[in-house]
Structure formats: C-alpha cells, structure tokens
Design a protein that fits this description.
heterodimer, A: 2 domains, five-stranded antiparallel sheet, B: mainly alpha, ABC transporter involved in vitamin B12 uptake, BtuC
Chain lengths: 264, 354
C-alpha cells in the first residue's frame, strides 16, 4: 500500500521543524532514501509518519488516514526503527527478535520460532542468537534491530540511519538485503541516510529535505542528485558520476562558505 | 523432512532448551521455598519433631491440641507472612526496576518505605490518623495511606511534560529524604516509650502477624500479579528503551502508570503490616536477572520466588541465630542476602545492569 504525506508540519517546543512537507509517496516494493543535511528534520519526519510526535497534516496508507488508527494498530502497519539503540537489556538476541514479533502478532509457538530462526540466519546473526544484547557491538545490535523490524512484517518500514554503525561490508549487505526484502515482500522501505552514493545506488526514489524542514526535491536519484542541487542544499562542491558499468558515485570535493566559495 | 529437522536443531531448539532450563530453575526455587516454609513452621521454641508438625499441618483435627494451636495459630501465619511479603516486595522491586529503567529502584530507594514509616510514626508518636476511624489499625492504615501518597506524588511529577524516568527516580530519592526528615522530627519529640515502639516498627518484624493480614497481602498479590503477567511482553519491550517500545505500539506512559500503581499497592501493603524490610525488593530481581535475564515470563516469577525464599530463610535465621531470641527480620535480610548476592555477581558473566 502506498504511503502518502501531505501538508505535514511538526513543531517541537516552539521550533518549527517541518513546514508543510508535501507530495511524498512511498510505493510498495520500492526503497525510498530520505536525504538532507543535519537538522533538516529527517528523523522528525519519520517519527511523525510513525505517530511518535504530534503533527498537523495528512499521512495516508492507501486510502486510510493513519491518524484514525490506535497507536498499536498504526505501529503494526508503519514501523520506525530509531537511529541508535542503547539498550543494555538482559535479553538474548533470539528473545529480542521474538519479542518484536509478539508485540504485534498473537503467539504461534513453533511457527514463530522458525520465523525468527530463518531471519537470524539471513542476517548472519545465528552465531549470536544466545548472546545478550548488552554484549553486542554497535553494528551487531543494529542488525538485531533490523531483524526486530522485519519480523513484525510492517507494510511500511522506516529506518533511521540503519548503516551508521556498520562497516563497509555490512553496509552493502544490509542495504542489498533491505532492497531485496522490499521487492519480495512488497514492503515500502524508507531509509534516512547520509551517504549519497549508497542512496543513489540502492534507492528507487529520493526525498531530499533542506534547511527549515522543506522538501527540496523528490524523484529518481538521477533527477534529484545534481551538482547544482548539492551546492544549494548541502553547501558542497561535489562530483556526481553515473558510470555505465559501476554504481553511481557522489564525491564531495569541498565545503562551501556563505559566499559560495571554498574555505582555504 | 530430515533437512528441516537438521536445520531446526539450531537457534530455535537452543532457545527452547534455554527456556526449559529457566522453567526448571523456577520450579526448583518454588520447591526450595516450600521446604523453607516447612522448616520455618517446624523450628521454634517448643521442640516438636518434624513428622508431628507435618501431620498437624495436614490434619490439625487429629493432632494434639497444643501442637495444632502452635502450628496453625502461631507459626504458620508467621511463616506464610514471610513468603507473601517476599513475593510482594520482590515483584514490586522487579517491575519498578523495569519501568524506571534503573537498577537501584525499589520501594526503599523511591521513598515509599520512608513515607510508610512516617505514617506509622504519626500514629505511634502523636496518635494521629491520616484517615478518620480505624483506631485498631491506626499504624497500619497510616503507613499504607502515606505510601500510596508518596507514589502518587512520583506519578504526578512524571505527568509533567518532558519528564524523564531519571527525574522520577530523583523525585523518589528526594521524597525519601523528605519523609526521613519528618520522621526525624517525630523521633526527636517522641517519648521514650513511643520511640522504642517506633524503632521496633521500623526494623521490620513478622511477630504481629495474623491470618487476616496474610490474607490481605495475598489478595494484593492476587490482584497485581495477573496484571504483571498480562503486560509481560509490553514490559519486556520497555527494556528496549522508550522510543523503540513506543515504535512497537506500546503506550509507554499508560503502562508506566499502571505498573506504578500495582507496585505501590504491593509495597504499601507489605510495609504497612511488617514494617520496613529492605534489600529483598532490590536483590530478588537482581538475582533473577543474573540467572534468567529479563524476559518477563521467567524474570517476574523467579524474582518473586527468590524474594520469597530469601524472606523465608531469613525468618528461620531470625529464630535460630541467637537461641531463645527472635530478632527483627528487617535487620537480617541484608545480612543473609548479601553474601549470596555478591557471590552471584562475581561468578556471573552477565552484567548486573549495562
């Protein structure tokens, strides 16, 4: 089911964080990358869609206005994975993933266990299944959190910087796997991400937010990621390349100062 | 088919095996608690042989009259009181640690026990009741009302916008100092006789136990434990952190209030009848966490049972350490529990709290 966001505004305290964000669509089976500089409101946008912060405006899943659902029903359809989990819970990896399943779905005994086991296997977490969450590295915990998200079978899955704690190997692995999961299960996957090369490579659509919580551009990576727009939104001088036989490359060359020049 | 079996002999089976070990551990603790309860009934000033005591418990009508009275009217209520108070304090401590995300949270550290002591002191020193009527149970009623009042204050503070659990904990600690100060004032102005009574009350004792008191604490347990069990998955999810628990669809604020109310009821009832008994609410959950982790399906029952077992063992110790003298149990809980706790911390590879 397609997620649409219209005229969404969020004010935290007295600070307007998002201002009439509109025209966003996330289609089932596609990966959408949410990009933009620090403080543009990427996390806030995802939290608003999940119903975790108060907002004005409309968030629809197909024809359903999500504001009309209870918090639990909304969380079953639209799941937000926070940027960083600092939990030190004395739970094993297996227990933590099973827990995520049980908070949405009624218990199915052996069937649930088999599902958790398959997922752990896919994410290469089987050797860690009995490990406590508190004993994991940041990257391992990140992958457990992703397993917790997928096991809930949401219709829209939003991940806040899912690759920030991962090494290069796991960045590629996790993003490729999220892309495959979106395609196979018809989930709409939305990823807030800083690495524009990875965004260009794995996303079908980009949402670019700029300072002041406005939408600067939406569309395919080739349309959104232009050198002129990166100069305008990120204040950087960058090379954007689309080689025929290699993944796209966004190479930041220099940070621009207020006058449009580069600092020495 | 064989490949499916071979594949499933990995993490799911290891999880089930681990779960079975946890259930065995719970059953074992329950059996030990029953044995300790029996020993608690059998040990006492009148030297009755164990088989006779067991016979008197099972069939009081066919037992000698004095033995039946000693067992049923004196020893059994006290021994059972130790068990239900242990269950109540440890399960309250377990859920307080869970909802406040703090390993030091228990009825003591949050000022609930201090408030109860102050309520009791009002009755003992000044003869003032916080509620009209109830002359016979003045001390108990005062302690109960003040304990509930303290937790209500903590909850009210938590309702202010943007207040974190850390603020709630700090509020609890501030309350503890506040009520201790008020208690100090009362102690300062108290007569020698009421001061002695007050000190005895605050040391915690099972000696004023009666069947109705045991029944009331058991009723509080019957009311709250099912709530804990029903909320089990949500409480476990809370350990993932507030934001993730909310993303999982849990109404964190409501869950926290419901649990705070249940914990306060348990702690206030227990403290009102037996005085302040420390350490059990803190250490029961920690021992359970070290042994089975924080999945509430095993964490809560084991916390409660460890609390009950420790209280029962302490009750036995309070009679036997100095022959002929019944020590107040509140003095001993820490002395008995500490070595056990420390040895577990040192042996366990699991961190007590992140």
């Amino acid at each position: 089911m397609t997620l649409t966001v219209e005229a969404l505004s969020v004010t935290l305290g007295r600070t307007p964080v998002l201002q009439a964000v509109t025209g966003l669509r996330a289609v089932p089976g596609e990966v959408t990358a949410l990009i933009g500089p620090n403080g543009a409101g990427k996390s806030t946008l995802l939290k608003a869609v999940a119903g975790l912060v108060r907002y004005h405006g409309k968030v629809h899943l197909a024809a359903q206005d999500l504001a009309g659902l209870t918090h639990a029903e909304r969380a079953r359809r639209v799941y937000y994975l926070p940027q960083e989990s600092t939990t030190r819970a004395a739970l094993s990896v297996f227990e933590a993933v099973l827990l995520a399943r049980r908070t949405t779905h009624p218990a199915r005994g052996r069937e649930d266990l088999a599902r958790v086991e398959r997922l752990l296997h896919t994410l290469a977490l089987t050797p860690l299944a009995e490990r406590d969450l508190g004993q994991l590295s940041g990257g391992q915990r990140q992958r457990v959190a992703i397993a917790q998200a997928i096991v809930r079978e949401p219709q829209v899955l939003m991940l806040d910087e899912p690759t920030s704690a991962l090494d290069l190997h796991h960045q590629l692995q996790v993003l490729a796997w999220l892309q495959a999961t979106a395609r196979e299960q018809g989930i709409g996957v939305i990823i807030a991400i800083h690495d524009l090369s990875l965004a260009a490579r794995f996303a079908d659509q980009l949402w670019m937010l700029g300072a002041g919580g406005r939408v600067c551009a939406t569309g395919s990576p080739r349309v959104v990621l232009t050198e002129a727009r990166l100069r305008e939104v990120y204040a950087i001088h960058a090379h954007v390349e689309w080689p025929a036989d290699e993944p796209p490359r966004v190479t930041p060359l220099a940070a621009l100062n207020a006058l449009g020049g580069t600092d020495p | 088919m064989t490949t499916a079996v071979a594949a499933s002999s990995s993490s799911a089976d290891r999880y089930l095996a681990r779960r079975r070990r946890h259930y065995v551990l719970i059953a074992l603790t329950a059996v030990l608690t029953c044995l300790s309860l029996l020993a608690d009934v059998a040990i006492g000033p009148g030297q009755y042989p164990l088989p006779a005591v067991v016979a008197a418990i099972v069939a009081p009508d066919s037992a000698p009259a004095t033995l039946a009275i000693v067992v049923w009217e004196i020893r059994l209520p006290v021994a059972l009181m130790a068990v239900v108070v242990g269950l109540a304090l440890a399960s309250a401590g377990a859920e307080m640690q869970t909802i406040l995300d703090n390993p030091l949270a228990d009825p003591f550290t949050l000022g609930i026990s201090a408030a109860a002591s102050f309520g009791a002191a009002l009755a003992i020193v000044l003869g003032v009741g916080v509620l009209p009527g109830g002359e016979a149970l003045l001390t108990t009623l005062n302690a109960f009302v003040m304990a509930m009042f303290a937790s209500l204050l903590i909850w009210l503070v938590s309702r202010l916008r943007g207040v974190s659990v850390q603020t709630m904990v700090l509020m609890g600690i501030a309350l503890m100092f506040f009520f201790n100060a008020l208690l100090g004032i009362l102690q300062y102005v108290a007569s020698a006789q009421s001061l002695q009574q007050l000190v005895f009350w605050s040391l915690g004792s099972l000696s004023r136990t009666s069947w109705p008191k045991v029944g009331i604490i058991a009723a509080a347990l019957a009311l709250t434990l099912p709530v804990f069990f029903v909320a089990g998955w949500r409480l476990t999810a809370l350990r993932m952190g507030d934001l993730q628990a909310r993303a999982m669809g849990i109404d964190v604020a409501r869950l926290r209030l419901l649990m705070l109310l249940c914990c306060s009821l348990l702690a206030a009832t227990a403290v009102a009848f037996v005085g302040t008994i420390g350490f059990i609410g803190l250490v029961g959950p920690h021992i359970a966490r070290l042994l089975v982790g924080e999945d509430q399906r095993v964490f809560l029952p084991l916390s409660a049972l460890v609390g009950a077992l420790l209280m029962s063992l302490t009750s036995i110790a309070s009679k036997t350490l100095i022959p002929g003298v019944l020590l107040p149990i509140g003095i001993l809980t820490a002395l008995i529990g500490l070595p056990f706790f420390v040895s577990l911390i040192i042996k366990s590879r699991r961190e007590v709290w992140g």
